Amino acid sequence: MTEFKTVRGMRDFLPEEAKIMRYIEGKARRVAELYGYNEIITPVLEPYELLAAKAGEEVRLRMYAFKDLGERMVALRPEFTPSVARLVATTLRNEPKPFRLFCVGSLYRYDEPQQGRYREFWQSNFELMGSSKPEADAEIIMLTNSLMETVGLRNYAFKFGHIGVLRGVMGKEGLDEKVQSDAMQLMDKKQYDEALRLVKEAGVSNKCMATLRKLVELKGDNLGIIEEMKLLVKDYEEALKATENLQEILKLVQASGCKINMTIEAGFARGLEYYTGIIFEVNVPEMDKALAGGGRYDRLIELFGGEPTPAVGIAHGIDRIMLALQLQKARLKIKEEKTVIVIPVNEELKGEALKISQMLREANMPVEVEVSGRKVAKALEDANRRKMDYAIIVGEKELKEDSVVIRNLREREQKVVKIGTIVETIKGKSD
Predict the structure, then answer these.
(1) What fold, for 15-327?
(2) Is the pTM of this model over 0.70?
(3) What CATH number labels 340-430?
(4) Which tens digit of pLDDT belongs to each residue from 170-182?
């Protein structure tokens, strides 16, 4: 008989991991509520052209793309932003702006599986569409900090850059936009020598090359580094504007009282082609993959046929955050409810056991019923093995008194209580 395994790059999440994933997702939903973001649900499958339009060569090559039975070229979403932009360009085009939209779910890329990178992965996604103001960018940074803090991560740090700095320098030389994008794809992968070689071969000036080399090397952990960036790009008007925009955003984040660890990298680039402004990532020392990444993209909605709509967004890797928490051995504040099993002492009492279990569920108490026909001793042995908290033993003698036996499996104590007081007996103990 064939032994089936998961498809390479896909995973099963067992109950403990699923619990952590849902915990992080719950925190993301709470952040969405606190910042006024409304949830939307978009399809996993989209037209290939939509997803490929500004994804960047790296992502395009790794999409799960195929023809459906209607001969349409479709793909599994590799990210959320194009789907949200499509929605804003069409269905929501006449709704009042700005939009604050949130979505969560699975995404797909044909990457080489490794720690922190799988072909199916999960993200929570926040998009603020309809504002070009720096306070919108600051809000996305602040809510990301809120999420990282509230899930219990330690020693996380933000890395900031601005796509307009590099594009401003290369654009003044009249460098083709595709060459610019290809160079930034290489920079995103830390292949700076190859990126600079590509730019040089395109015929830019020595001054441009010298400026790009210095930008790639320039980084620091405070706003002072931005003054150095300004000096470097003072002869490039667009790059200077971009640097000032980055400075204004980060000053607003500081003014908000939001304390974040940061690095500013003048040569920082991200692989997606649609970015037009600030870009950033969140990292922890235990991992070499970003836990979150995002930035400003002001032309994507227009590209999809919508009104010109400035936008900024962020994607948080739910499964990467889970991995980081595991590597940090974090103690999560997951609210644990008491686990209860109801065991009838014989076949004739199954109905009573089900009746009691239903009463407890109506009182909002999770409960299982022994359904394997095991004797009480065996059922208790199994409950202990599964680290359950309470067993309710339904016996004939006790039922005549409208009572049951409650056994505290942790403390190995038991007592007879009235059926009507089961809930307060267990909840009283747990509270």
Answers:
(1) BirA Bifunctional Protein; domain 2 (3.30.930)
(2) yes
(3) 3.40.50.800
(4) 988 888 888 888 8
